[in-house]
Every structure is written in C-alpha cells, then in structure tokens.
Design a protein that fits this description.
Elements (H helix, E strand, L loop, with lengths): L2 H7 L13 E8 L6 H15 L4 E9 L5 H11 L3 E6 L5 H11 L4 E4 L9 H12 L5 E5 L6 E3 L3 H15 L14 E4 H4 L11 H11 L4 E5 L1 E3 L2 H8 L3 H18 L2 H29 L6 H15 L1 H49 L1
Helix pairs in contact: 6-10, 11-12, 11-13
C-alpha cells in the first residue's frame, strides 16, 4: 500500500461525507488567549470570506485548559457563527494534544494550523492554499521564516538565536533540507494527516508529524513565512521562565537524536578518523626525519621509532586513541544504520496497518 493508496482510501472525512475539492479546516490551539483570540477569529474568518468565498470552511478552536476567559469567548464565537467549532480540555494538556484533537475533529480536504495570536499573519492561509492549487501532488506545506525570503521581526535575540540553531540542527534529522521544522503554521492534506497515528502531546508533535509523513513518502513543500512578534507578545513571553524555553529546545533536540542517531555519530567518526590519520602522518614524517643513515634495516627502524616516540609521545597516544575510537564509532554507526532501516520499515508498516484497520471500521 502506497501513500497514493492511503489518500484514495481516506478521501472521505471522518463523518463519512465526501471531501470537496474546495474545502478548508483551520485549526487553532488556544491557551489563555482572552486578549487576542477575538481579533484572531475575526481576521481569519474575514480573510477566508474575502479570498475563498466558494470554499466550504470551518474554524476549529481548541481550548487547551485555559484559566482565563478564553472558554467563554470561544463559546460566544461558536454561537454567533455555525462555521466555528470549539473543543475544550479540562486541563492544559499541551500544544501537541490540542493540535491532534483539532486534526481529528476536522472534516475538510485541506487542514491548516495557525497560532492563536497570529504571529504568522492570515496571508499565510492564501500562501498555503496557493501551493496546494499550483502543485496538486503536494501533501504538506511547511511555513518557514528562516528560509530565503522569510522574515523575523520583534523576536528577542536570545530566543531567535537558539531557535535558529535548534532548527538548523534538527533539519539535518529530516529529509528534504527543510529550514524550519518546529513551526506550528502548516498546511496538510486532510485525508492524510487525519489518519496518521500520532502520540506526542507537546511541541515535539511537529517533529513526529514530519518524520512519519517523510517515511510514507509524502511530498513536503516549504514556503517562506513571516514571524512577527508584537509588543504584547514580547511582554507575555518575557514572563515565561527561560528554563522552560530551553527545556523545550532540549526535548526537540533529543527527539531528533532519537530518530536519527547516525547524523551526529557519522560526523564524530569522520572527525576522529581524520584527526587520527593526520597525527599518524605527522608521526610518519618524524620517523622519516629521524631514520638514521648507514645502519641495518631492523636497527634503523628501531632507532627511528624510538626517537619518534621520545620526540612526540603525546602524538602517538592521540593518534592511536583517535583511530581506535573513530573505527569503533564507524562500526557502531554501521550497526545503527541497519537497525534504523529496520525500525523505519516497521514504523512504515505500522502506519499503513493502522490506516487499513481504520478503513475496515468504516
């Protein structure tokens, strides 16, 4: 069973109704957004009405256990507009849990994720849908403020630096040379994302989705995005403990290392072997220089080695250790690569089996 088969099998929404070619679900996770969510709802609805009037449209708002007045604001919005759907969590379960619930609840062909305060403006909706229209085989559109043509404004330097470094490292764990892998703003083919088994409840969900879709051979397109923090957002983020931010970054890195441990190990192996060979070359040069003339071969070798060792004992030690450790890392890397291929094949089989079981239930 291929990715194309999955899309054909799940061409119906989860309520059994066929998906139309012009249908859109926008999912927004919300947590304590009483000051911004009304403006966000109005901006999203207005943009869709003005630019995609023929689209069947729903706005899915997921209240992730907010402790302010977000609950009531969302209920009022739902009562005033039948296209607005609201899910409520009794507790704060995390962005990943909110996104998963919104995805499962969605019904339309295209599913777009946005953030609640519109740090990424509503124009990204048009940008994502334009890619799906121009490139019909696209399965995922990833918005990236860090790629060429992207823009970042108002984000504190420290956060921006850590985020760029983290995404640069994490991008190497995924195929496709993506510039940003942690951004919430993305567009998905609904029939594909709704039937993908997902387990992460935190921000690692963004990585889990990319990994599993990549294994299934999904066509992922990256487009430049605009990340703009307003002063209100900057003040609210300053209240978030730095350790929380760095803990999230560490979790992202650990997840990336878990799914592709060979990335760092391969570089370590190359560095160790290269350093060991360089030091060995220096030893060879010293040996040639110290090799005595007019003596027998055995005596000459012995005297050359003795003088080389006395002259550069640290070089001998470093060269030996580097070559041994580099070779061990290379062997371990080969074993990991085989295990990784087996694990990815098993995961791919599990995902396809999961979708086949869903189809049988339908």
């Amino acid at each position: 069973m291929t990715l194309k088969d999955l899309n054909n099998l799940h061409s119906k929404s989860h309520n059994g109704e066929p998906e139309t070619s012009e249908s859109l679900s926008i999912v927004i996770p919300c947590y304590n957004e009483e000051n911004t969510i009304t403006g966000t709802i109005n901006a999203v609805v207005k943009h869709v009405e003005e630019n995609f009037p023929s689209y069947k449209f729903e706005l899915v708002l997921v209240n992730d256990g907010s402790t302010d007045n977000t609950h009531q604001i969302l209920e009022n919005a739902k009562n005033n507009d039948g296209r607005i759907k609201v899910l409520h969590f009794p507790l704060n379960l995390g962005r990943g849990a909110a996104i998963k619930s919104g995805i499962k609840f969605s019904k339309n062909k295209w599913v777009i994720m946005l953030d609640a305060d519109l740090s990424y403006d509503v124009i990204h909706i048009s940008q994502i849908l334009d890619v799906f229209k121009r490139l019909p085989l696209t399965d995922v559109v990833v918005v990236s403020p860090y790629m060429k043509g992207g823009k970042v404004q108002g984000v504190p330097f420290g956060r921006l630096f850590v985020s760029k470094i983290a995404n640069w490292i994490l991008s190497g764990f995924f195929a496709g040379n993506l510039s940003t892998v942690t951004c919430v703003v993305r567009g998905y083919r609904g029939s594909l994302i709704r039937n993908l088994p997902l387990f992460e409840s935190g921000k690692e969900l963004h990585l889990e989705i990319l990994r599993k879709l990549s294994l299934l051979g999904a066509n992922i397109i990256e487009v430049p995005g605009r990340l703009i923090w307003k002063e209100k957002k900057i003040r609210s983020k300053r209240k978030v403990p730095k350790k929380t931010f760095f803990r999230a970054a560490a979790k992202h890195f650990n997840y990336g290392l878990l799914i592709r441990p060979t990335r760092l190990l391969s570089k370590l192996s190359i560095i160790l072997l290269a350093f060991g060979l360089y030091e060995a070359l220096m030893l060879l040069i010293n040996f040639i220089n110290f090799y005595p003339d007019n003596v027998g071969l055995k005596q000459g070798i012995w005297m050359g080695l003795s003088k080389t060792l006395n002259h550069s004992p640290h070089t001998v030690i470093l060269s030996s250790l580097s070559l041994i450790l580099g070779f061990q890392a290379f062997v371990f890397l080969s074993i990991l690569q085989v295990l990784k291929m087996q694990q990815e094949e098993s995961l791919r089989h599990i995902v396809l089996l999961y979708n086949k079981q869903l189809l049988n239930k339908e």
